């Protein structure tokens, strides 16, 4: 396998959990609620997903469990920031630590165990293509779904009534209400969906990418996903670019290793965060007409 | 809710829920794992009040939490949020430790200690400066920026401690050279408690006086109350915001400096971890009130110390206590905390 292929494979698999969390939070932000708690959802998804995958051996159960766990954190965020009108950022922050505590507590039996089973599933035919085959089509079922997710979100947000309603809540909830819909219900749905998707992304992280559980293994990826929504200018079709940019920053590690570049391991670990920060700084210089109106008040 | 009930009774009810609900939920959680909640709560109490050393640890943690909590409260007064206390504290600790073992090492204590504290404050303010620059010049969300900068600080410090700043005589342990002994604060009563707590409490008193009793403080409260009105009143809002954010960084930096000269004596990997985040939450718990912050800092400090006791006595991870702390905070948010704006 060539070096380029290895780096690209790593880029795709590091970017996949981000795509899930990013798309989820993007939908939530279009409805006017920023869920920093996607980080917590990812953690819970990773922990529950790994537990179920290692005890039942079923990927489907793992994903369902992870989605439920992520959704549970999402619904707490929804309740506190929609019904109780608490500061959404602080709420998200608290939920991250809550999820950290819970997963450390319940995941303590899973530490150090390895899954011993790979869920990768090459698509016959397509996986034989040069470069693209191993990079895109020799992954796993969750990654294949992630290819479709941003497009699906784009279609849903711009071409369906429900999606347009969700976007309208993020812009003018009074208008949505005047048309006889329930802004709060739509927000609840969007924020819980964000949690569910982030939970699935977390399951990808533990069950497929790392194949093990470690305390706090998400380590800021949810926060990065939440920040990358800005980089996408709240447009789901740009999620690929943002998530794989993160993936590439992560894959640099491999590049450094192959070429024996004398940089500290910690500097390479820092790269994804630095990349995100710099990317946000670059995008910030352009105007943000696409930012949902409701978010302009809080940020 | 019954509208006839007085506000006072309403407050008491909310306070009661905030005290009891987290303890009950936590007990259920422990029971589900076959652990006795009574033993756990006894462990918490003995870890905090059982020994002078334990209580000293609480005071030490409270010192950091008051300062990092102030670092979150001060910008909140001008409509900004600083979630970067963690990174600011860590960078300041590193800066102080390096200064204390190199350029400041030969100074006598009476001038050296204040300079060390100043050094920490400058480092913290400088790191916060990046965050406020991103906010005011580039329009980036300061919460996201400062959180990302926390991660960057952690990895930067790790790479330095494993690299050029590693103490050559430190048995290969990732830590800096120890600071000169005359630059250290004295510990009291055989614990790790030190004069830092007086600095922290003094800082929160000063901040309270500054915000509530001075002319500048009045301007600050105006900005916090209604930013648009403040702009129309001709107040240079951005300048005040910059100043307050740098002050916040300096306060978090003070926590880092006190950690180095009071407790650790050097910067080592993982020192002061999560204290910045917890400080942010301690501030959130009391609505950024500088004096009430002292109480919430002691509460959260006590619970984190108890977490270590839990790990030793019941075999549960120390992070278990994080669940209890967060349950308290979530309950406060859910019932409105008795704090009415």
Descriptive terms for the model:
heterodimer; A: 299 residues; mainly alpha; ABC transporter involved in vitamin B12 uptake, BtuC; B: 341 residues; globular
Give the DSSP E fraction of chain A (strand runs of 2 or more residues).
Answer: under 5%
The whole-number mean of residue pLDDT values of chain B reads: 85
Our estimate of the beta-strand percent of chain B is under 5%
Shape of chain A: globular
- Total strands of chain A: the figure is 0
Describe the model.
- The complex is a heterodimer of chains A (299) and B (341).
- Chain A is mainly α and 299 residues long.
- Chain A has a single domain (3-298), classed as ABC transporter involved in vitamin B12 uptake, BtuC (Orthogonal Bundle).
- Chain A has helices spanning 3-30, 38-56, 59-83, 88-106, 132-136, 141-159, 161-171, 173-178, 183-210, 221-231, 239-258, 265-284, 293-298.
- Chain B has 341 residues and is mainly alpha-helical.
- Chain B has a domain at 56-287.
- Helices cover 71% and strands 0% of the residues of chain B.
- Chain B has 13 helices and no strands.
- The longest helix of chain B is centred in the middle third of the chain and has 28 residues, at 109-136.
- Chain B is globular and about 55 Å long.
- Classes of the chains: A mainly alpha (299), B mainly alpha (341).
